[in-house]
Write a structure and sequence with these properties.
The protein is 31% helix and 23% strand. It has 231 residues and is of the alpha/beta class. The structure holds cytidine-5'-triphosphate and the ligand C[C@](O)(CO)[C@H](O)COP(=O)(O)O. One of its GO terms (molecular function) is 2-C-methyl-D-erythritol 4-phosphate cytidylyltransferase activity.
Length: 231
Amino acid sequence: MNTAAIIPAAGLGLRLGGAEPKAFREVGGESLLVHAVRGLTAATATGLSCFVIAVPPGTEDVVGKQLEPYAGAAELHVVAGGAERTDSVRMALELVPVDGIDCILVHDAARPFVPVDVIERVVAAVRGGAPAVVPVVPVTDTIKRVDSDGRVVDTPDRSALVAVQTPQGFEPSVLRRAHALEGAGATDDAMLCERLGVTVQTVAGSEDAFKITRPRDLQLAEWLLAERRST
Ligand SMILES: Nc1ccn([C@@H]2O[C@H](COP(=O)(O)OP(=O)(O)OP(=O)(O)O)[C@@H](O)[C@H]2O)c(=O)n1
Ligand SMILES: C[C@](O)(CO)[C@H](O)COP(=O)(O)O
């Protein structure tokens, strides 16, 4: 059995700014999307056989040609994404083959440097029987809930909180049922599974799997890549 990877890469990157969509911004001379694809192919234990990548409408052909050398032996599909991340994932999911796939990963192009061990932990947990799996890291700030006037309502117990990353891994029929639901307000795919009543399992994530969201994150990514290339 094999793994399929969906990469939502159709976001505009409004918080990052810049003239082009975030997935096409470069670190070390290569786009975030190329780094993300290469990172997934490096996790050889997953048996990755298919990529479906959701990109800004109109860029499908050019991205398809650019990514061919990086997809390795995996089948590659590039589709137009939608208005929200969940729309992009749902549209990509339609192209994931039904036969021969026992795990679907959904991984943000905006998380270009996820380590191999994180990817392999997620896939192993799905293959071990968990229907939905998310990599997580501890929360290091005190978190407060606030009201619409900015007043603190309360302070949740931090020991029960985690920050969630990607790739998130799913038993294929569970992800398909989750995306058949109304996706409004869902910021990740696990949240749709929670709405189904499916138990979501956590595994250890990594600080290196941080999401590039604001300009400073690009600087951190340049530093991380330089560190990796020097060792
Ligand atoms: N309509 C969308 C929105 C987001 N994404 C993807 O989902 C991932 C996580 O989203 P985020 O980091 O929030 O990216 P953007 O939506 O591009 O950022 P912003 O909210 O700052 O515009 C990214 O790889 C992004 O390309 C997508 O495929 N389709
Ligand atoms: C899916 C995700 O990366 C998990 O942390 C995240 O929710 C996506 O980011 P967004 O800014 O909410 O689109």
